[in-house]
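Incident review: delayed structure delivery

Summary: a single-chain prediction request sat in the queue longer than the usual turnaround. Root cause was a stuck worker, restarted by the on-call engineer. No data loss occurred. The affected request and its eventual output are reproduced below so the record is complete for anyone auditing the incident later.

Affected input:
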Amino acid sequence: MVAFSAGAVEKGARPSALSEDPVVEEQFAVALELHQKGVEGDEDAVVEAQQILEQLLEREPTNARVQAFLGNLYALRARDAIFYKKMGWLRKGEETLDGAVAAAPDDPSVRSVRAINSFKLPRIFGRRDLAEEDFGLLMDWAENDPSRFSDDLRRFVLYHAGQFYGERDEARGRELLEKARSVPGDSVSDEEIEEQLREMR
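Output delivered after worker restart:
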């Protein structure tokens, strides 16, 4: 079994849960803050966020945004788990992310979570085709239907798409990173974008 560091969505736009229940919205926001701490390495925050989102999903089992971030948290559990438990968590994360996209295929908040997660996993796990599919749709929407995105989400997606496409086409990667920098928002800092641009020079 190969060792790996599971990919995870970095800080970014904080979507709502699209719920009519204010408790769900409030708890989802708390979980996203904990999710961010988990991305930064806080294993306890990952577990706490997971527990919140699992409870929310029991309350609203068709909520694809809750499901998508829960899937990403399972990937973080894979990152943090002892060796023989990593693949179990990773498979659970993949299944949960795929279920979220199946439930809400036209939601860019959901697609972006799976796109970035799939991109950041090592190629050996065979998720690059899904990353290609998701980023392709996201770029089409960003170009032709930008109203689907908040500014923060659009900046975040363009930043990660710049890294994804830049692996094989530096000019395309730079173009997307420049577009990300031109979009207002603080989901990704100018410094982070500049760092990626420098790496392509």
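Verification: The chain has a mean pLDDT of 92.
Action items: add queue-age alerting; document worker restart procedure.
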